[in-house]
Structures are given as structure tokens and as C-alpha cells.
Amino acid sequence: EAGVVQSPRYKIIEKKQPVAFWCNPISGHNTLYWYLQNLGQGPELLIRYENEEAVDDSQLPKDRFSAERLKGVDSTLKIQPAELGDSAVYLCASSRSRTDTQYFGPGTRLTVL
Amino acid sequence: QKEVEQDPGPLSVPEGAIVSLNCTYSNSAFQYFMWYRQYSRKGPELLMYTYSSGNKEDGRFTAQVDKSSKYISLFIRDSQPSDSATYLCAMSAVTGNQFYFGTGTSLTVIP
């Protein structure tokens, strides 16, 4: 079974530029999560999807962050414009349902200069 | 005060040692407790999952939960160099609800 796929693995941009991250969850997994992980910290939930519906986005900074999950499969997380403090690893995870084990992707490491 | 506190280490032990990793928490509503292992530049992977108080053993790994003290532990017996990673505790109040992660403890097992 293929794992959660994320791309790109690394991204370096200048501040105020836009950036997008892509996630392909494990086949059949209805629940998808985006997490932010700062250096030396644990992951923090940004948004959770049940199929194509965002059911928990209370931690997503909506002034600059947006996310979508079209057709309830792949998901994209966007930042526009990026700020220096956005430098972190962005993790995507998926699970069969919200009560099942979450499987994490390798993450996208973002550096904002 | 953070929901979950975890000593970041780093922790360095010789091969074969018993490792003890710990987390404390403040929310008495937490009932589901997890330990994740995260290798460098990889995503976290679930190691152990326990519900409420008690012990759970899986091979060289034992997870303990003491809800009265709001304290959880992960023990690794006969530690191996391949155990070198960051270990994250996580917990939630209701299954399927938001996880609260600790900051992670960096472990190095020296051959």
C-alpha cells in the first residue's frame, strides 16, 4: 500500500511570494489532515477534511492560508503571501476515518527568505 | 501552560540500554494516548496507542499511562541504533478529536 505522498519535498521562496503544497492521501482514506511542524516542536493541526468538507479549520490563519480538497482525494495547501515566520515543515496525514490511525507523509520543508 | 509537556532531550544512551521517555499533561479529559516515532526528514509514524490508564506492551516497547498523575511513559528495552529518532507523545480527549502533540524527545542510541 502506497503511503501519503507530498510534493514538493523542499521549497525555498522569498517573503511575500505565494507557495502551494500538494498531498495525495492513501487510497480509500476519507479523512485528511494538514499539520504545521516548527523545528523542535510537535505537529499542530491546521485543517482536517472529511471527504471534501473542511470540518476543523479553526487553527488555519485564513488571512493568508487556504486549502482545498477537490473530489475528496488530493489536497492543496496554499500560502499567499508567505512570511518569514511560515518557515516550517508542512505535514499531510490521512486516515480511513477520523477515529482511525493517522498516517503521515514525509512533509514539505518550507524556507522563506 | 501547554496542554502537553515533553522533555526535548537530547537523550543519548548506549546500545542495549533501557530508555524511558515521558510526557505530562494538564487536561484531565484526555483519554487516548499515543507515541509516534519520527526519523529525520520523515513524517511521524504511530508506535503505540493506549486508552485510559494501564500498560501496553508491543515487542521491545511498553507504554504506560497514569491518569491520576497525568503522566505517560514509553519504555524501550534493549535499545538499538535504529531506535535513534525523535519520539512524540500525543493525546486526545475523544477518539477522532484533535490530537495534542508534545514537542518530542530526540533519542540517540550509540553502538
- In N-to-C order, the SSE pattern of chain A is EEEEEEEEEEE
Structural class determined from secondary elements of chain B:
mainly beta
Radius of gyration of chain B: 13 Å
Which percent band covers the strand fraction of chain B?
A: over 45%
Total number of β-strand segments of chain B?
A: 11
Separation of termini of chain A?
37 Å
Look at the helices and sheets of chain A and give the structural class. mainly beta
Relative helix content of chain B: under 10%
Task: Provide key terms for this protein.
heterodimer, A: mainly beta, B: 111 residues, 6-stranded mixed β-sheet, 11 strands, globular
Description of the structure:
- The complex is a heterodimer of chains A (113) and B (111).
- Helices cover 0% and strands 49% of the residues of chain A.
- Chain A has 113 residues and is mostly beta strands.
- In chain A, strands 2, 4, 5, 6, 9, 10 and 11 form a 7-stranded mixed β-sheet that branches.
- The N and C termini of chain A lie far apart (37 Å).
- The mean pLDDT of chain A is 94.
- With 111 residues, chain B is mostly beta strands.
- Chain B has strands at 4-6, 11-14, 19-25, 32-38, 45-51, 54-58, 61-66, 71-76, 85-92, 100-101, 105-110.
- In chain B, strands 2, 4, 5, 9, 10 and 11 form a 6-stranded mixed β-sheet that branches. In chain B, strands 1-3-8-7-6 form a 5-stranded antiparallel β-sheet, with no helix packed on it.
- In chain B, strand 6 and strand 7 (61-66) form a beta hairpin.
- The radius of gyration of chain B is 13 Å and the shape is globular.
- The mean pLDDT of chain B is 93.
- Chain A binds chain B through residues 4, 40-45, 56, 91, 93, 97-99, 101-107, 109, and chain B through 4, 6, 8, 41-46, 49, 88, 90, 95-96, 98-99, 101-104.
Record the SSE blueprint.
The complex is a heterodimer of chains A (about 110) and B (about 110).
Chain A: E1 5-7, E2 10-13, E3 19-24, E4 31-37, E5 44-50, E6 53-56, E7 65-68, E8 75-79, E9 88-95, E10 103-104, E11 108-112
Parallel strand pairs in A: 2-11
Antiparallel strand pairs in A: 1-3, 3-8, 4-5, 4-9, 5-6, 7-8, 9-10, 9-11
Chain B: E1 4-6, E2 11-14, E3 19-25, E4 32-38, E5 45-51, E6 54-58, E7 61-66, E8 71-76, E9 85-92, E10 100-101, E11 105-110
Parallel strand pairs in B: 2-11
Antiparallel strand pairs in B: 1-3, 3-8, 4-5, 4-9, 6-7, 7-8, 9-10, 9-11
